Each structure stands twice: as C-alpha cells, then as structure tokens.
Amino acid sequence: MNNSLNIDAMTETAKITSFIKTVLKQQGFRNVVIGLSGGIDSAVSLSLVRKAVEPKNIFVVHLFYFNSQINSLATFLKKEGIPQKNIYNISIKNTVDKIKTSIGLTKSSENYNVRLGNIMARIRMIYLYDLAKKHQALVCGTENKSELYLGYFTRFGDEASDFEPIQHLYKTQVYQLAGYLNIPEKIIKQTPTAGLWTGQTDENDFGFSYKEADMVLELYLNNKKTFSKNIFKDFPNAERIIDRINKNAFKHHLPYTLR
Q: Is 114 helix (H, G, I), strand (E, B) or coil?
C-alpha cells in the first residue's frame, strides 16, 4: 500500500472521538442513532461512537431487506455494551415491496437493481431519522472517502446523516482502524457489499478493487494529477476510476440553485 495511505490509528481514534463529542455538545444532543449493516464501515463507526458516548445513549438499527444478520452481530454489540432495549432489528421488505408495486417496478424494468437499491437506501433513512426524532438523537453516518468520491451512495439515502466520523478516511484506512479497534475478524473479512441484491458486491460493481481505487484517488485528488498513462502506469484501472470520479462529481453539489 502507498505509504501516504497509512494512518496512526491511535491518533486517528482520539481525533474522531473528540470530533463526535464536540458535535454533540455544540448541537445540544446526548443521543446517537446509527444503522448497523454488518459491514466494516458501520462497525467501525459504531465503535468510534461508543468511545465518545455512553452505551445507554446509543441506538443501533439493523435494517434488512433479505435476511437479518442481527444474531451474528450479537457478540460485537455485547462487546460495545449496547443495551438490548436500544437495538432495533427491522425488516424493510414489506415497505420496499409496496413501493415497488405502486410504481410498477419489476425485474424487467430498466435499471431494476439500481432502482430497487435506491428505494432500500431511502427507506432506511426514513427509519433512522424517525428513530432519531423519537430518541432526540443525531444520526451517525457510515460513509468512507472512497465511496464518497466514487459516487457509491444513494442521494438522500445512505449519504444522509447528521455527522460522519469516517468520511475523511479511505476504505483501506478504515480497515487499518478496524484492526486497532478490535472489530471482530468475521466483520473485517466480510466482502464489502451494500446488500442491495443477492450476490451484490462493491468491487464487482466497480470492476476494480478498493485497494487500487484508494491509491488512484490519493494520487489524483491529493496531488492534483491529471490522467496520463505514465503517471498511473502501475494502476490498470486508473482511467476507469478517474472517469467514475468525474461522472459522479455532480452528486457533491446538489441541489443546484439560483444564487
């Protein structure tokens, strides 16, 4: 891995913990709601929140369309000290399927999987924000920097949050932090997926790995390098990665308004 992607996990943890405490204090909140998918990003985010907030003030929400993973997350949740009464295990299938039916979305529809995934992501946010209102809490996001710049998120869905503890970290850096935070090996080794359809994985959708993407992102964004085959000769998918960055840049500037 590029040395510039290495982080001091202890220092980073302290910085993020301080950030979370500051946000809550400045905005006048004590409670946090967080969606826990079963993947590494939400697990790391929860562990960081736990270092800043008492367990009684954390509300964990597992929102699933296919199968619940809450039982496999039980040990992790117990380690973090989350009270059972603060854990929500909610199926979004009926809600999503009703919307599918109402708009005539079928498997033969154009862009079926993506449209279905977007509906799921936006429904999850409805639940999270309703529970945040119920518990007078802020919603903790779980997006990383790689997803942000690759545009791998649903507008007004999984990108919606009140604060983002790991959005400044690339996916490979999140893995570094996970090791320091003692996130269970089962979660760390799980293939990254948004869980939007059966067999869906992030890297299959991309056509390249997070490891390659992060090195290209670092070079392209931080060093302001324009694409050239010489500069990116070590990265066979560099052109595809940079093209994806540029095609999804519009997502970072919405909504467009008259000023």
A: helix
